[in-house]
Amino acid sequence: MKILGINAFGHDTSAALVIDGKLIAAVEEERLNREKSTRAFPHLSIEYCLKEANIEFEDVDYITYAYQPYLWLTHRFLYHQLRFFPQALGELKYVKRMISKFMFLKSNIQKELKTNKPIILLKHHDAHMGSTFLVSPFEEAAILTLDGLGEYETSVQAVGKGTSIKRLDHILFPNSLGSMYACISHFVGYTAELDEGKVMGLAAYGDASEYYNDFKKLVKLKKDGTFQLDLSYFEYHKKEIPG
Questions:
Q1: How far apart are the C-alpha atoms of 3 and 236, rounded to whole Å?
Q2: What's 15's DSSP letter?
Q3: Measuring CA to CA, which of 22, 44, 119, 154 is 20 to 30 A from 214?
Q4: Residue 129 banded pLDDT, cuts 50, 70, 90
Q5: Taking the model in full, what pTM does it have?
Q6: Region 78-104: what's the mean pLDDT?
């Protein structure tokens, strides 16, 4: 079975090809079009993966995408708007853009690729877990994902065994270490969803003890190993971070 995975309609677009359970090729579009953090549809990445496998696009059985938009709509948007109304109304521009991009996700992909091949939409954090554990040398492992936001999850804890992954727990937006990092990157003068790596690199030259107590106010580590943010310091759950 030949499965083509794509990341599109957002930053750092990419593609990967799996054949009979084995990863054959994977590449980010920026490596090929030379545009940092490109948002271009990954046509070049798809072409590269197919060439590496010496197959044609017609040979692909399934296309996968790591996002389930209706989960985002029901859990992240509707629940979040009700919970933080009216402050979250500042997100409406972001919400409108997300709806235009993702509510017709399958048809948009088919239109770009000029195909009617079946498209499977995966939960975002399931794709994160699969892309690490299933290509690792481990038969069994603990798995932890952390990012800004999937559909509504910001972290998932799971156990991988063989070719299966069992979820144990998750953390929901707006408690998000990724969003916190993006906010701090923006606060010190960098661009969110682009320059976090620069901030991470610069951190090695700083004195962690100087701001340790400040960060303890921002993030509370709970006894069960999860975390909770003090949202009074942030606005990312009320309006989009400039980026």
A1: 35
A2: E
A3: 154
A4: very high
A5: 0.85
A6: 69
Alpha helix ranges (H) inside the chain: 30-33, 43-53, 69-71, 80-83, 92-102, 105-113, 124-133, 177-187, 196-203, 208-218
Domain ranges of the chain: 2-67+101-122, 177-243
Residue 208 pLDDT greater than 70, yes or no = yes
Superfamily of domain 2-67+101-122: ATPase, nucleotide binding domain (3.30.420.40)
Question: How many Cβ atoms are within 10 Å of 47's Cβ, its own excluded?
Answer: 14
Q: List own/partner pairs for 55-61 with CB under 8 A and 24 or more apart.
A: 55/2, 57/113, 57/115, 59/2, 60/2, 60/3, 60/4, 60/117, 61/1, 61/2, 61/3, 61/117, 61/118
Tokens of 195: 């320059």
CA angle 43, 45, 47 (to 5 degrees): 70
Express each pLDDT in 106-128 by its tens digit.
999 999 999 999 999 999 999 99
